[in-house]
Specification:
Radius of gyration of chain A: 24 Å
Number of strands of chain B: 2
Strand content of chain A: 5-15%
Distance between the termini of chain B: 20 Å
Order of helices and strands of chain B: HHHHHHHEEHHHHHHHHH
Largest sheet of chain A: 4 strands, parallel
CATH architecture of the largest domain in chain A: 3-Layer(aba) Sandwich
Strand content of chain B: under 5%
Strand order of the largest sheet of chain B: 1-2
CATH class of the largest domain in chain A: Alpha Beta
Number of helices of chain A: 11
CATH topology of the largest domain in chain A: Rossmann fold
Distance between the termini of chain A: 63 Å
Oligomer: heterodimer
Number of domains of chain A: 2
Strand order of the largest sheet of chain A: 4-3-5-6
CATH superfamily of the largest domain in chain A: Nitrogenase molybdenum iron protein domain
Number of strands of chain A: 10
Chain lengths: 317, 354
């Protein structure tokens, strides 16, 4: 019982009160039994949508309280002006600054179902990356709508932004945001259009060596930035990769996602890659890991940073 | 029970005899040189396999020239062969030798066929030590083997103390103590990984299953030196271990300084486990399966078993890691998954047969 936090105490008391009340009620008035309390949210103006994982979801027409279980979804929520209705997010959600002050429900991999229920959200936003199938079922049972997003490339990120816009009745803001991001994207792709694609190795972590595979949106970002990931054909989004294969692919540039919430982690090239042409010629680029690991609005910042690193001459302007 | 002890006692005395000793030395040298040849052959052959295909003849030529000549390999191929693949194979050999020699000695000292670094919780102790080193002294390279050794030693002593209750030690009690320490330390590992950020959790879960891919030259050198010196020290104490297999009291009566030998074995075995865990995580089953196979084929005289197990362990992990790094290339599996997949069924087979 030591686990009961002060914030849940009043709630416990009200449950106890309700229990005592209903017992009394049952004693005094038999008719009382006909009036079952309905804890479910009002569903009279609900709508049926299909989420990005292809699941049918019933969501209330107006969403006043929602929770985000991934940092990219938190960033999207703020970008489309729905941040004030965000009642819970994860310990990974550190951007924008306001997101840090929102009640934390655990991290993306292990959120607390109790905390989520206590926050009474009408909707929980989940990313496929967090693998929360069992968890999703539990929320379904409590009639909390779960919307799964699954962006695999930049186009998918834009789609997620628009979908969340519709979901949270911020369609206009979402469209504006996407238009803005598209404009920046096009300007980058225009500038690198005539350049020769540079072979890139994306080092997600050095020891052991992890990279970005076919299903990662980073692979798409690299392509748009005038590069080509040497691991773009590997199945999975983030495969464990052989050092030998990385050397044999002869990358011309190595990208290290670091800084941001990663701190100083992954700021050095893996030992096996130190003699690769990219490392020897100093073509190792450290880019804010949060831009490259979160399929949200800042992915375009990542795209710009990548293009600047790979084609500094083309982006002089 | 008494008759049995006397019978083994007699055998123990003859095994310790002088003539017998010379014969044993010859057997040891014969077995070890055969295994050494097999190991060198395995190193050469496995160095030809990897996610990248290298020209066979040029590769053998480059290895034979000890890296002095590139033999027509491109700089990339040369780097792949001599800077990535071979160091990893040598690390596999050092780790295999360390774990198998440690396992063989634990089994003799604790008179328990199931005593193994992984099952006793010693590997997990070293893993916790390594993680603490990574979290608190991340940049200082030597903190990892140092803390791993400390963790292994601590786990060894805790298991040993837990196993010796008022009623004395029994094999079952030892394994129970090992299970308790292992699960306790596993929880500690889960706790520490949860405190770390998400990107590092991924590398850790992989590393915990044994991963030979990422090591530095200095850690590799340490692992090799510790493997050789450690195995030599354990082999030098093998006669005492033979007598200890009769029971600590009997060994004491036969002139074995039980306390000293126990301390040396615990210390050296922890050093072996610590240095291999610090460079490659917990590779399971090596310390269990390899000494058993060696005993099945060469008998249970520790003067042969301990050094032979080291060579055979090196061979086993070199082969297992080649499977791990080629089977789904260019992706990789943790080597611990392969040793367990081979080791567990083999062990069940040995149990049924034995």
């Amino acid at each position: 019982m030591l686990l009961v936090t002060p914030s849940t105490h009043p709630r416990l008391r009200s449950i106890a009160g309700a229990a005592a009340g209903s017992v009394l009620c049952a004693f005094v008035l038999l008719a009382c039994s006909a009036q079952k309390p309905t804890p479910t949210p009002e569903l009279h103006d609900a709508r049926q949508v299909t989420d990005e994982a292809g699941r049918g979801v019933t969501v209330p027409a107006k969403i006043e309280r929602f929770i985000s279980l991934a940092p990219n979804l938190t960033e999207i929520s703020y970008a489309i002006g729905a941040g004030d209705r965000l009642v819970g997010n994860t310990t990974f959600c550190d951007y924008p600054e306001e997101a840090k002050k929102v009640q934390k429900v655990g991290d993306t991999l292990q959120p607390s179902i109790e905390r989520i229920l206590a926050l009474r959200p009408q909707l929980v936003l989940v990313s496929t990356a967090s693998q929360l199938e069992a968890f999703t079922k539990q929320l379904d049972e409590h009639r909390i709508a779960v919307y799964v997003t699954d962006p695999r490339d930049l186009e998918g990120v834009f789609r997620s932004i628009e979908n969340l816009g519709k979901l949270l009745n911020q369609e206009r803001r979402a469209e504006e945001a996407v238009a803005q991001l598209r404009k920046r994207t096009t300007s980058v792709t225009e500038e690198v259009k005539s350049t020769k694609p540079i072979k890139v190795f994306y080092q997600l972590s050095a020891e052991p060596l992890y990279t970005a595979g076919r299903d990662s949106f980073v692979t798409d970002l690299i392509r748009r930035a005038g590069g080509v990931s040497v691991t773009s054909d590997v199945p999975e989004a983030w495969p464990r990769y052989s050092q030998e294969a990385a050397v044999a692919a002869r990358p011309e540039a190595i990208i290290l996602p670091t800084d941001g919430s990663m701190g100083s982690a992954n700021s050095e090239v893996a030992d096996g890659l130190k003699r690769s042409p990219a490392a020897v010629s100093g073509k190792v680029y450290r880019i804010n890991g949060d831009f490259l690991s979160r399929p949200g609005p800042r992915a375009v910042d990542g795209l710009e940073a990548l293009a600047h690193a790979l084609h500094p001459e083309a982006l002089k302007k | 029970m008494t008759a049995n002890t006397e019978a083994t006692l007699e055998r123990g005395q003859t095994v310790g005899g002088l003539d017998e000793g010379r014969v044993t030395l010859r057997q040891t040298l014969a077995a070890c040189s055969m295994l050494l040849v097999a190991l060198l052959a395995a190193i050469l052959v496995t160095s030809l396999f990897g996610s990248e295909r290298l020209p066979t003849r040029a590769s053998i030529c480059a290895i034979a020239s000890l890296g002095q000549s590139s033999c027509g390999l491109t700089p990339d191929q040369y780097a792949i062969l001599l800077e990535i693949r071979l160091p990893r194979i040598f690390l596999a050999a050092a780790v295999g030798a360390s774990l198998a020699a440690a396992g063989a000695s634990y089994q003799a000292l604790l008179r328990n066929p199931l005593a193994e670094p992984y099952l006793l919780g010693v590997s997990n102790g070293a893993a916790v030590g390594t993680m603490i080193a990574l979290v608190f002294f991340g940049t200082w390279e030597w903190s990892r083997p140092l803390m791993a050794f400390t963790g292994a030693l601590a786990a060894t002593f805790v298991v040993y103390r837990l196993a010796h209750g008022r009623a004395g030690a029994s094999p079952e009690r030892l394994i129970l103590a090992g299970v308790i320490v292992t699960t306790f330390l596993s929880s500690a590992i889960v706790f520490v990984t949860t405190l770390m950020d998400a990107t590092r959790i991924r590398s850790f879960t992989f590393w915990l299953l044994g991963d030979l891919s990422g090591t530095t030259t200095s850690l590799l050198a340490l692992a090799i030196i510790v493997a050789i010196v450690g195995t030599a020290v354990l082999a030098a104490n093998a006669r005492s271990l033979n007598l200890l297999m009769l029971g600590e009291r009997d060994a004491f009566d036969l002139g074995v300084e039980v306390g000293r030998v126990r301390l040396i074995v615990f210390f050296v075995a922890s050093l072996l486990v610590g240095s291999s865990v610090a460079s490659s995580g917990s590779v399971g089953y090596v310390g269990l399966v390899v000494p058993h196979l060696v005993r099945l084929s060469l008998g249970s005289d520790n003067r042969i078993t301990v050094p032979a197990a080291a060579f055979a362990g090196a061979l086993f992990v070199v082969v297992a890691d080649t499977v791990a790094r080629t089977i789904i290339a260019p992706r990789e599996l943790p080597v611990g998954a392969i040793t367990a997949l081979i080791g567990a069924p083999l062990f069940v087979y040995l149990l049924k047969r034995g």
